C-alpha cells in the first residue's frame, strides 16, 4: 500500500513539474519570435554563436559545449555557414581536424542582440534571490543532464 502511494505521489509531482516546465518554456516563445524577427536566428543557433565567441571549436567540442547531438551541430553549422556567420577551417597537417570559427558577421549578430536582457523572463530571474537563481540553475542543469542520459540509454 505504501509503495502504491509513493508511486501515485511521484506521478503527481512529475506531472506538476512538467506542467511548470512547459509554462516556463512558453515564456521563451516571445524571445524566440524577436530573435527571428530581428536576425532570423534561433535560440539554439544563438547559443552556438556564443560558444564560438569564446574560441574556435571542433564539431565534437562544439556539440559538447552547446549540448547538442552531432547531427544537430552539423545542421546548425551548415545553416550558419551559408549565412556567413561561421566558417569551417582545416588547421594544420591533419585534414580531418576541422575547427569552426565565428566570423565578423556572426560577431555583429551577437553584438546586436540584447533580446534576453530586456525580456520579462530576464527581469523575473533577476528579481529572484541569489539562492533561488542558484537552485533554478542547478535544477535545470540536472533536468538536462538526466534527460540526455535517458535518451542515450533509449538509443
SSE blueprint and pairings:
Layout: H1 2-39, H2 43-54, E1 57-58, H3 59-66, H4 70-82, E2 86-90, E3 98-102, H5 104-112, H6 120-127, H7 130-154
Antiparallel strand pairs: 1-3, 2-3
Helix pairs in contact: 3-4
Please characterize this protein's 3D structure.
The protein has 155 residues and is mainly alpha-helical. It folds into two domains: 9-113, Winged helix-like DNA-binding domain superfamily/Winged helix DNA-binding domain (Arc Repressor Mutant, subunit A, Orthogonal Bundle), CATH 1.10.10.10; 117-155. Helix content is 73%, strand content 8%. It contains seven helices and three strands, in the order H-H-E-H-H-E-E-H-H-H. It has helices at residues 2-39, 43-54, 59-66, 70-82, 104-112, 120-127, 130-154, and strands at 57-58, 86-90, 98-102. A three-stranded antiparallel sheet has the order 1-3-2. Strand 2 and strand 3 form a beta hairpin. Helix 3 crosses helix 4. The longest helix has 38 residues, at 2-39. The chain starts with a helix and ends with a helix.
Give the class-level CATH name of the largest domain. Mainly Alpha
Q: Give me the secondary-structure category.
A: mainly alpha
Q: How large, in whole angstroms, is the Cα Rg? A: 19 Å
Number of domains: 2
Number of strands: 3
CATH architecture descriptor name of the largest domain: Orthogonal Bundle
- Proportion of β residues? 5-15%
Low-confidence stretches: none
Amino acid at each position: 500500500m505504501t509503495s502504491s502511494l509513493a508511486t501515485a505521489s511521484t506521478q503527481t509531482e512529475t506531472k506538476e513539474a512538467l506542467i511548470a516546465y512547459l509554462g516556463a518554456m512558453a515564456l521563451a516563445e516571445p524571445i524566440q519570435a524577436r530573435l527571428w524577427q530581428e536576425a532570423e536566428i534561433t535560440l539554439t543557433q544563438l547559443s552556438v554563436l556564443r560558444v564560438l565567441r569564446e574560441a574556435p571549436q571542433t564539431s565534437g567540442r562544439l556539440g559538447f559545449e552547446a549540448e547538442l547531438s552531432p547531427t544537430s551541430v552539423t545542421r546548425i553549422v551548415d545553416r550558419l555557414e551559408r549565412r556567413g556567420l561561421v566558417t569551417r577551417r582545416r588547421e594544420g597537417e591533419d585534414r580531418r581536424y576541422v575547427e569552426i570559427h565565428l566570423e565578423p558577421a556572426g560577431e555583429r549578430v551577437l553584438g546586436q542582440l540584447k533580446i534576453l536582457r530586456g525580456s520579462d523572463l530576464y527581469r523575473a530571474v533577476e528579481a529572484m534571490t541569489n539562492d533561488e537563481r542558484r537552485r533554478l540553475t542547478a535544477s535545470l542543469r540536472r533536468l538536462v543532464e538526466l534527460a540526455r542520459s535517458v535518451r542515450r540509454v533509449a538509443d
